[in-house]
């Protein structure tokens, strides 16, 4: 099937000099591959004398270096070697459908997913390094540098949940809706901490983004905020005794996963949800995305913070985190907090393909009160990463016609025969909430004139451009602006 066969404007391309994909492909991808080479070089060196493992590690380093050369030399994308994973066929079929494009002239979304799947196969095809995650050290060390914000939030979370448990009038007075909004906004801005952007941001920049002062200041940078509708929906369900499942399609590990856990804990403690299901990636993805291994690692940090952050004289961090950790572990034991994996999340397609690519996952998500899609990549996939007019309603952008034809292994196994029924379905049949800081070109649902204002304020050359040509949407690349967009299931 061709992923480019759905309705709507053209997808962003790495050939378009006004797109963020253009500089991403030329500058950021080679840096990202170099990061994996450096990490693996250290791991091989540390590994010492096990000869076969060292030799294999060196061979992977060479393969990764060749990959970097391919990107810089602008070769055509080659077929992915079959490592037995579910997504390989979809990638290779799409490569054919796209006519074997080059790194610098390819749909940005497809090509970027291809890059990370390709890095993954360098390891998965090996004997000794199958499960090695070349981004793991980066993910954990950035989390370590988030300690001040982790401590601040752990203390506030404990106080909040303790008041909820006591049915504290203070919570009611403070205004439940204000607290709801604050927790969701903490969860939103947690997405600004993205390692793939570290090629542009310093650790200090990131720490500044995490503090409460920064969050307050950033409120006005939320361009669309549908949280009142979401609050009303969850409250109504709670009042009717029907509050049940909330799904969180995770994005990044480290600090962002930490705030996702706070959100889950708040929803479960307040009774706004009975069950929270997390959706991580099966493989290392877009540098910092959560895998099940990352999830367990962060749970381990919560349980033993002194080992990870180093012991300090002030042991309130340990106490506050141990409160969170105990609570999360008991939710897990009760089956109220769980992980659900699917190879769908690491396919190169937009989410218009969900009903056909993984019908089982789609029908599960249809039972959810709210499916929260975290971050930029999920937003790009929701909207097909297409050059929509920025005033296009969110619901229209996510209702793009599902592609026809074969889209993945699950569909082959379970979807045949159901084709007619699922064809009419779309992600707009889910209760979708996007919590996204903008780090790419696509954006929808803006008020008329807002995009032009932001372009004029952030791009000195904008005023000189001929009317209607637009130029690059630079304001949307830095993670400084955000959208919270909700679409009620049809
Ligand atoms: O724009 C930079 C980028 O790496 C995009 O390629 C990608 O969409 C995004 O950041 C990843 O961000 P997030 O972790 O929020 O999905
Ligand atoms: Mg990510």
TrEMBL record:
Enzyme class: hydrolase
Domain of life per record: Eukaryota
Cofactor(s) annotated in UniProt: Mn(2+); Ni(2+)
GO BP terms: DNA damage response
Domain Damage-control phosphatase ARMT1-like metal-binding: residue ranges: 24-453
InterPro entries reported for this sequence: ARMT-1-like_metal-bd_sf, ARMT1, ARMT1-like_metal-bd
Reaction equation(s) it catalyzes: beta-D-fructose 1-phosphate + H2O = D-fructose + phosphate; beta-D-fructose 6-phosphate = dihydroxyacetone + D-glyceraldehyde 3-phosphate
Chain positions covered by the region annotation Disordered: 402-421
Composition skew (Low complexity), residue ranges: 405-416
Record's keyword terms, sorted: Hydrolase, Manganese, Metal-binding
EC numbers on record: 3.1.3.-
One Pfam family, short name: ARMT1-like_dom
Cellular-component GO terms for this entry: nucleus
GO molecular function, one term: metal ion binding
Biological role: Metal-dependent phosphatase that shows phosphatase activity against several substrates, including fructose-1-phosphate and fructose-6-phosphate. Its preference for fructose-1-phosphate, a strong glycating agent that causes DNA damage rather than a canonical yeast metabolite, suggests a damage-control function in hexose phosphate metabolism.
UniProt remark on domains: Subfamily III proteins have a conserved RTxK motif about 40-50 residues from the C-terminus; the threonine may be replaced by serine or cysteine.
Family: Belongs to the damage-control phosphatase family. Sugar phosphate phosphatase III subfamily.
Protein's UniProt name: Sugar phosphate phosphatase
